[in-house]
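Same chain as my last thread, 170 residues:
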Amino acid sequence: MLIACSHESRENINFRNKNISLSNYEVIYESGNWDHPDYSEAFESYGNHRAVIELQDTLYSNTQVLIPWRRRDNEPAQKDIIIVDAKTNTVVENRYVIEINNEYGHLIFKPNNQSSLYYVYYLPHSSTGSYYPKVSYKKPKETKDKSWLAEIKLSFCLACNRGKRCFNIK
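reply #2:
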């Protein structure tokens, strides 16, 4: 008979929180179908994971999104996200990440006019290619438009368990 025990810390293990509302798991998850890079050559990628956001509002004002996901990577807040306008295939520059963790991504972005469909890619990376590639994940980038950040600081407040509080933009 073989018995093994371990007294190692389990802090770095990502377990799914069983207390999450079931509504987070009502999101439809399915395989994507988009072009993949030539893995034998060096490349940069938006990431192999994306969420599709369809806006119902035609005002195209700043939009706050909470995306439930099943990320099992360590330190998800240390990895960038990229929002792409599906109609024009351009990257949305004005975006602010409120919180990213293994259970959800909470962000605000400024949609483009006349577009209602957006792709939110996570785990963007660059690869050296070949049989044994070295992959490095992109670090989060701050929005360059400081006036837009000031605008959302004034207009958006988040709900928390103790009532409403405004978030601080650093």
